[in-house]
Write the structure tokens for this entry.
Amino acid sequence: MTPNNKDALSLQIINKALESGASLAGIANIAELKNSPSHILSEKVPEFLSAGTKQVDGRKKDEISWPDTAKSAVVIAVEHPLGAPDMDWWLKGLKGGTKGNAKLIAVFSKLADWLEKEKQIPYIKLAYHVEHGAVFMKDTAVLGGLGCIGKNNMLVTPQFGPNIRLRIMLLDEDLPSTGFTGFDPCSDCKEYCRKACPQKAFDKKIYSAEEYGLNELPGREGVYSRIKCSAQMKKNEERSRDVDIEGSDQKGRQVKYCRICELACPVGKSS
Ligand code: B12
Ligand code: SF4
Ligand code: SF4
């Protein structure tokens, strides 16, 4: 396929994802993704058990298992606006865990149908947790041109700030990354995100470029502590409660995980 044809195919895929309900979409090349900061750092830091990791027999936490056939990754984002906090609430028994994840899964279901029927491109829809086959989503999104990593250690997009959630699908098609944006709202910001954290998770430098061999560090300067952040998630779990599951006679355990550093960020808050 010529470079022009590849660009045209990428555009078609992105447009189909947007048409299917994604708020943003992009593409990351697998070779670049394998060399992105989270994929490098995760191999160097000790295993970590938290709300975001899973105990899977025979698998190391944070360890990616790359399918041989995958050559590019489609990344989609769905907006989680201030007016719909329930999109982010985890509920055991709900498909995808949250309403937002259910929407992300539905978008990929439509895109997968189209890839199969119209393009005959093999794909793999990835899970959320790395131990269940996921890759690191924020890096995929930066390479795909959706935004930058902010001082809150989250993907910050020009359109929706950090108020988005992500999902990835791998393609057996060698497409180039749709690119960095140069967008950086943090350089002259008063760091509302960091100041708002109840665990003071950004108060100490933990990672250094010299020790880890990369300049792109958690929280940008190596100040984000996932141990402190995770302590907050544990508190949130302790405050969970049983609620009705819509469309079912079952009850499920609802957890409202902290997103204070996300909600404190002024970027994209006009929506
Ligand atoms: C495990 C996990 C957690 C754990 C550990 C977090 C961690 N960062 O280590 C805990 C439970 C603590 C957690 C907390 C949260 N999480 Co979480 N989490 C994950 C998960 C499953 C894996 C992330 C991970 O382990 N990363 C590995 C570590 C090594 O990397 P990192 O600390 O994230 O830092 C890297 C980046 O900053 C990056 N980086 C820095 N500079 C640059 C520059 C460039 C150019 C690039 C490419 C990268 C880059 O490289 C760093 C390595 O240095 C992802 C889903 C996924 N499969 O990716 C969701 C995910 C990252 N979480 C998400 C969210 C929303 C949250 C919370 C707000 C809680 C909530 N309500 O859901 C908080 C936010 C914490 C914060 N400020 O970062 C979203 C982020 C969306 C966004 N806008 O960025 C994700 C993508 C899931 C989703 N549904 O979309 N999470
Ligand atoms: S509050 Fe400011 S420093 Fe923090 S992520 Fe948003 S723009 Fe960046
Ligand atoms: S999610 Fe909550 S605890 Fe974790 S860094 Fe953000 S504000 Fe702090």
Q: What stands out?
A: The longest helix spans residues 99-119. The two ends are 40 Å apart (CA to CA). The chain has a mean pLDDT of 93. The CA atoms of residues 37 and 216 lie 6 Å apart.
